[in-house]
Amino acid sequence: MPKVSQHKRRVIPEMSTTTHAHPGLTTAQETVQVVLLVIFSVVGTWIALFRVPWQLSADPCLVAAAATGVITNSLWLTRWLGSRGVIFEQYLLAAFLVYMALVYVMRYLFVSTARAENPWLWVEILSVLIFATLAVLGVKRSPWFLVIGIAAHGLAWDSWHYRNSTYMPDWYVIACLAVDVGLAAYVAARFPVYQRASRVKKGNQGGQ
To answer: What confidence tens digit (pLDDT) does each residue in 131-157 have?
Structure first.
């Protein structure tokens, strides 16, 4: 009987650990992630309510603003799913990074009347290739490439276009900058989760 009770005492903590949303994280890490996601959600909501000039239009900037709301809700969902949603979350962030760069190309094509004469289209296309490379590296190599890519898109690409572009509205540039900075901070805080998921994935592949 004592042996059985000791066995039970060993099993119970293991079961409680596996049911935790993100095993291995400290309370402080969990708290930081939640706070950053709340801030990101509040900023996104404020932008959607007070900065976006909503109207029925195929404008890529308006579509991107709506897509940001979808991404925000998806991040809450993948967080709720715990370890089951981590890999999907990384691919989602990689796709969003590429899409943010594509918005600039689509917006240029949407409003430009002199595409052949203006070299900026090719600059925007080059940026898509750069951010797509960072997105792939973020999934295949290290999530830090996602952090770098998202932050660079905001701090470098968005800020450079502010009052310096004839085809990107300033409201979108400011909104995208705010979203990028908030999202990059959250992804950086999620690094321990991604790192653990990567180790588990490699372990499963090695076991096969």
So the answer is: 999 999 999 999 999 999 999 999 999
The percentage of the chain sitting over the pLDDT mark of 90, rounded to a whole number, equals 73
Q: Token digits for 18?
A: 């596996």
In a domain, 197, yes or no: yes
Return d(Cα 134, Cα 154) in angstroms, integer. Answer: 14
Our measurement of the distance from residue 196's CA atom to the centroid of its chain's CA atoms, rounded to an integer in Å, reads 18
In a domain, 80, yes or no: yes
pTM of the model as a whole: 0.85
Q: State the DSSP string of 13-60.
A: HHHHHHTSSSTT--HHHHHHHHHHHHHHHHHHHHHHHHT----S---H
- Hey, what are 154's tokens? 């905001």
**Residue 17 domain flag:** no
In the chain, the number of structural domains is 1
Give the domain extent around 101.
Answer: 29-203
Residue 12 lies inside a defined structural domain of this protein: no
Contact between 161 and 173 under an 8 Å Cβ cutoff? The reply is: yes
CA distance to 22, 88, 151, 194, 202, per residue, from 205 (Å): 21, 17, 32, 16, 5
Q: Which long-range contacts (C-beta less than 8 Å, at least 24 apart) are formed by 173-177?
A: 174/51, 175/47, 175/51, 175/52, 175/65, 176/64, 176/100, 176/103
